[in-house]
Write a structure and sequence with these properties.
Shape: globular
Order of helices and strands: EEEEEHEEEEEHEEHEHEHEEH
Structural class: alpha+beta
Helix content: 10-25%
Radius of gyration: 20 Å
Distance between the termini: 18 Å
Largest sheet: 6 strands, antiparallel, barrel
Number of helices: 6
Strand content: 25-35%
Strand order of the largest sheet: 1-2-5-4-3-6
Number of strands: 16
Length: 291
């Protein structure tokens, strides 16, 4: 587990596709977990001026590997009892996003990041997200890639149709969760993005119909202590959604199947389309109470 506070800006000495050698002041032990741009990696070799971490084929495929040169964020794993100044992060990248707009403010900078649509239900206004391993607060969640559409933060939950009367629009059939087209089917059980083909990712990020967007405000201190101060439009970034949102989504998927979890009531929908199961709000309340 990580905190989302960057320990150091390390320098990439070499990257061979699976072995990443870093120059850093931080001295881990063999086998330690270190988050590199938000991806949890294991230390395999130690050197006087740094260390090497190894990427699995899956990791190399799902992260923004093109950024593993020059400078990178690193953060060692937390210890039990450590103070949590950010939020709990696993180092499991859900998707790769792209910065499409940067706006300077009187204090800080707004970054607008486009992301694949399937992670939209896991993003909430004023919720937490990790971008390249940095713990940040989402100011706004935007539809249609952020270029137009409803703003969930300014219109409220009613504006996004996330209200109780819209429960019938959710698909709780055990294979996915669909809120008006934003599907969780793209997430596998490990929390990784199942849309792994780079060409598909490019299509998702450039197509408004297949993308969502978030607005983040970076304060001057974070700009100084991270690489955000050097980020430009077009930069690809690793995105990890909130840990609790992932588990709630998994519970909802499971509860929608047969048999339901013990103690969870599955309501019966006898609509014209045929008889099918759907989750009751009592069940939703019970699931949320677990967290």
């Amino acid at each position: 587990m990580f905190n989302g506070l960057i320990r150091e800006i390390a320098q990439v000495a070499s990257f061979s596709g699976d072995l990443l050698r870093l120059r850093a002041k931080y001295r881990p032990a063999l086998g330690d977990s270190v988050a590199v741009n938000g991806a949890c990696l294991s230390v395999t070799r130690l050197f006087a001026d740094g260390f090497t971490v190894q990427l699995s084929s899956e990791t190399a495929r799902v992260i923004a590997a093109q950024n593993l040169h020059g400078s990178v964020h690193i953060e060692p794993a937390m210890r039990i009892g450590d103070r949590i100044d950010g939020h709990l992060i696993q180092g499991h990248v859900d998707a790769v996003g792209e910065i499409y707009k940067i706006s300077k403010l009187a204090s800080g900078v707004d970054f607008f990041i486009r992301a694949p649509l399937h992670i939209a239900p896991l993003l909430a206004p004023k919720g937490s997200v990790a971008i390249d391993g940095v713990s940040l607060t989402i100011n706004e969640v935007l539809e249609s890639g952020g270029t137009h559409g409803r703003n969930f933060n300014s219109q409220g939950l009613d504006g996004g149709n996330f209200i109780r009367k819209e429960l019938r629009d959710a698909n709780f059939n055990g294979v996915g969760l669909n809120f008006n087209g934003a599907s969780l089917r793209g997430l596998n059980s490990s929390g990784s993005n199942s849309v792994r083909d780079p060409n598909s990712l490019d299509a998702n990020l450039t197509s408004e119909a297949q993308s969502c967007a978030i607005r983040l405000t970076i304060i001057p201190l974070t700009l100084k202590d991270t690489l955000f101060g050097s980020y430009k439009i077009g930069r690809r970034v690793n995105i990890e959604t909130d840990l609790l949102a992932r588990y709630v989504a998994a519970q909802l998927r499971f509860a929608g199947g047969r048999p339901a979890s013990r103690g969870i009531v599955v309501a019966r929908d006898t609509s014209a389309e045929g008889e099918k199961d759907r989750l009751s709000w009592d069940a939703v309340d019970k699931i949320l109470s677990l967290y």
